[in-house]
Amino acid sequence: MEEMIIKIFLALVLGGALGMERQYHDKPAGYATNCLICLGAMLFTILSEQMGRYGGDPGRIAAQVVTGLGFIGAGSILRDGNKISGLTTAASVWVVAAIGMAIGYGQYIWATATACAILILQLGMRQTIHLVEFLKHYDTIFLVCEPSWDAVEKIVAAIEKQNVKVLKQEVTKQDNLFHVNLVATFTGEEFCKITKELLTMPQVHSLYK
Questions:
Q1: Tens of pLDDT, residues 170-204
Q2: What element of type H or E holds 74?
Q3: Which fold has domain 137-208?
Q4: Per-residue exposure over 21-58, b if at least 16 CB sit within 10 Å of its own CB, e if not
Q5: What are the tens digits of pLDDT across the range 4-15?
């Protein structure tokens, strides 16, 4: 019983810590979700281990946890045009389940070390991204504008006026509007200037990257 309490407590602490990081950054799978995933994976692993003592396959339930969590993770992945979001959240859900399984098998050090590594990666990565904003890097600007090639040419000219070279452009027509994808190299500051310039143009309806 004492060991079971330790496992439940550790699953709540580690799953909750990773969930708080997700919730703080306003991601789909937050505190409660990660706690439940970690607890569920831990309990399924214990049941799988117990089943093995009675002649069953000890890896049967645990194996289904790995594949079953894929459905939950897939539900957090969203696609908006050419932009895909939620991949990091889906991967986090998958790893939280692995941490829960490690706790279920009694591998407390592995579970704790993995949770700490994820927190360091997630928090450190965000700091690194802020530094990258000061450097020129490849990125895609997505625009919706009037269905006119003249409008596209004016948009490209406005971007290149900021000393940013457009490397690739792709134009599709949907709902009687042009959807323009422009690949260029720019810094975060240059993107802010580009945004201000383009959003003042009457031909541009929306812009994001």
A1: 999 988 999 999 988 888 778 888 888 888 899 99
A2: helix 60-75
A3: Alpha-Beta Plaits (3.30.70)
A4: bbbeeebbbbbebbbbbbbbbbbbbbbbbebeeeeeeb
A5: 888 989 999 998
Q: What would you report as the CA-atom Rg of the chain, rounded to the nearest whole angstrom?
A: 24
Report helix, strand or coil for 173: strand
Contact 7, 46 (CB under 8 A): yes
Long-range pairs of 158-161 with CB within 8 A, sequence gap ≥ 24: 158/194, 158/197, 158/198, 158/201, 159/184, 159/194, 159/197, 159/198, 161/197
All structural domains of the chain with their residue ranges: 2-131, 137-208
- Are the beta carbons of 62 and 69 closer than 8 angstroms? no
Number of H helices, E strands in the chain: 7, 6
CA distance 97 to 101: 6
